[in-house]
Amino acid sequence: IKFPDPTEKVVKLLESIRKKAEKVKADRFNIMIAGESKSGKSTFINAYLGVELLPMDVKQCTSAIIEIKYGSSFSLKAKYAGGREKSITDEKEARDFLKKNAALDDQYRGIPVPTINSEILVKSGLRAREKGKNISISDADIAAMLASPEVQSANIHNYPDYENRIRDYINKRKDRWEEIVTGIEIAFPFPNEDFRGIHIIDSPGIHARGGVAEITSKYIENADAIIFLKPVTGQSLESTQFSQFMENVSVERNKGALFLVLTHIADKNGKDLRSLEEEAQKQFSGKLDKDHILFVDSKAELYAKHFAGTENIEDELRRLKDEKDLDPFVLAVHSEAYGPIGDGGDFIEKLKEKSRFNKIYQSLEAFGRRAHYLLFADLLDQIITLYGKLWNDLDFNINLLRQKAEDPNELAKKIAEVKQDLDKIQNQISRGVDRGVQKFRGDEGYISKTAKEEVEDFLEKVGKIAPDS
Questions:
Q1: Which of 168, 194, 343, 356 has its CA 20 to 30 A from that of 440?
Q2: Of 127, 117, 109, residue with least CA distance to 37
Q3: 188, containing H or E segment
Q4: Whether the predicted model's global pTM rises above the 0.85 cut
């Protein structure tokens, strides 16, 4: 007919459909971890995965995004600001690299390094390289950054030499900006096979006022779940950083996927925790789904998993205590389990109760399942929208040809051909949607069958339980 290809008008929609289709097929669940300083992001990730993968003695991270995904063997790939990449397959070497590149020198702790790296050093370095010049950061550039609200409010400890340390950090690193690690990708054979489809993104931290760097924003937009960690120790639940984080543009678009996880609860008794939960529900009512506000202790979960793989708990407790590598709450839990009023056999279970990580697993599993079906529904909606646009375009062309026709017989032939195309599209829509509906709905659908199998399996297992056990 010599009309332009109608798909040229829907390129963005086609790209979106292809991306969503790939996500549905990949069956991957992206979790973005963000949080305040000292909230224990690395400890949380290790506890969630059930393996001590990230160094936990790091007080402040650099500006690197860390991506963790399943792999048949341990491997690490690092990306540098200058464009260089480094691959490591030796596990010990990879762990040493993480320790070195996920931590800061003591003298620079307390200054907003992620902001300085991404907004000053890397951007200035890339601009200089593009112009073929050496990097140059003027006093005016540094003064402007120091005056920004984010950097001003980052000095929560009111360090007297705060500005001097920032200037010193910039001056010492500006000629080595290309060596700043901006991204680390870790592949790891998780001990729990259920985590194979999970992809964790550990952000380099948020600005003092809850803002995020540009690179972090891109990851947030593609996250299926966003977990913001905040410690409950030594402060109220009210948090300017979290409120500002929620107002971030990237987070706003994905607010339904946001979870607030309050950490470091091991030293709280039941009454205090109930009070904190009530306060949290009141504080964030209307802002977050109540099922998305969780209280956990990552260390308690790590201890539970550690002792579960220990032959002699008493010997291991003594060893950790002698090495001064044991948190006081562990001994309190042990005393509760094995002391005069303890029942002698549930030390590990009591640690799990203390950690409350079962709520994390349950919430994310339920949310992940729902999110995947919603993604599939959204994909079908976009496909129907695409066919609607193509249909309208073809219909418009039919009318245009009818108006401009010179040979009625030739026009009728062309119209018949286009109508055949329309019928094919209509049949494809009908068959495709019907197949999708039949697969999932009804008594013989995938959902009903799976539910029935789960119920039968559950009843069979219950039936095997001795009533007097």
A1: 194
A2: 109
A3: strand 181-188
A4: no
Mean pLDDT (whole number) for 236-262: 72
Q: What are phi and psi of 261, to 5 degrees?
A: -115, 115
Is the confidence at residue 208, as pLDDT, over 50? no
Distances (CA, A) of 417 to 213, 357, 386: 53, 61, 21
Helices (H), 339-356: 347-355
Q: What is the pLDDT of residues 128-175, one digit of tens each?
A: 899 888 888 888 888 887 787 667 766 655 667 888 888 888 888 888
Give dist(CA 251, CA 90) in Å, integer: 36
| CA–CA gap between residue 68 and residue 64 (Å, rounded) | 13
Region of poorest pLDDT, from 114-123, 145-154, 392-401: 145-154
Residues 231, 236, 237, 242, Cα dihedral to 10°:
-80
